[in-house]
């Protein structure tokens, strides 16, 4: 029996992603000034408005950072530079409402404990070379390509906001057999004919991004393609829809495959286990799968605020663990081979470096430039099992 699974992605010009990128740009600015900065920055964007709120504590004093300038530069880099267009870097209003971190929270973090309670998940599988689920990887390819095409200037009617959605059909063997449906929506300038938008998206985005053995343009199993299904997408970005930090957590992770703890990543420094422990859980899961211990695997870590050691470690291999291994044995391997305390995670994955703006669009996982995606523990894990 066939099974369909769908994941979506959005471009950096999507209003929620604009908010994520501003929050992470603020975080990077703080970490550049103070690697031990405490940051929890939330951003709201709407028509001609940006609001920064939350808590930031710097040992050097937060008055040294021009948060408004950070926000405006981020907006301009995304592509919203035009004034008088409903949302532009130079004429939008920027309100800054940032305070210091609560002393009660700081008390637990200062002694090496987790910055909050919660449960975090990491996932890995053998569907792609990056150990990611195929639908979310393909969806990210489409939105990345949309952005590349816009920045190239070859089609000057393309605008920053955009979305994609990919539905993959799986067979009884669990393997991806074909792409069933693709949806691509792109913001565009006034007056562009829909037939031209569809032609460019089909030829320069979809064909350039999706594997030909799965994306089929003819025959009985033809892939259905929907381009700008409403027929018009002129008003977009924060002018078309309010954006908030943390509203695209499934896009940020595994596209709906596996579980999600609920906590967003962007705007949070690595003492917040919502972020750092999620990265660690992915690192653990990916190395276990790459070491041949399972074909598909999910790791859950849970923490109590102010407490260093996780209150629980859970592994689910979905029945794919290699012969001789059980999920309980995999849990023992995880707890013995990986340091899971927040400070150890921060140091081990080099999380005090200001690299977070890069993560705020096109997913936090499946990207080799990040340290939590490295496979450096595979030899150690194989020896541990042996």
Chart the SSEs and their pairings.
Elements: E1 3-10, H1 15-33, E2 38-46, E3 49-57, H2 67-78, E4 93-99, H3 103-110, E5 118-125, H4 134-152, E6 158-170, E7 176-188, H5 194-209, E8 224-227, H6 237-240, E9 243-244, H7 249-252, H8 273-290, E10 296-303, E11 312-316, H9 327-337, H10 342-348, H11 378-385
Parallel strand pairs: 3-4, 7-8
Antiparallel strand pairs: 1-6, 2-3, 2-9, 5-10, 6-7, 10-11
Helix pairs in contact: 1-2, 4-5
Give structural notes:
The protein has 386 residues and is α+β, with helices and mostly antiparallel strands. The protein starts with a strand and ends with a helix. The model has no long low-confidence stretch (mean pLDDT 95). It has helices spanning 15-33, 67-78, 103-110, 134-152, 194-209, 237-240, 249-252, 273-290, 327-337, 342-348, 378-385; strands at residues 3-10, 38-46, 49-57, 93-99, 118-125, 158-170, 176-188, 224-227, 243-244, 296-303, 312-316. Helices cover 33% and strands 22% of the residues. The chain has a four-stranded mixed beta sheet. Strands 4-3-2-9 form a four-stranded mixed beta sheet.
Quick structural summary:
By secondary structure, the chain is of the alpha+beta class. Helix content is 33%, strand content 22%.
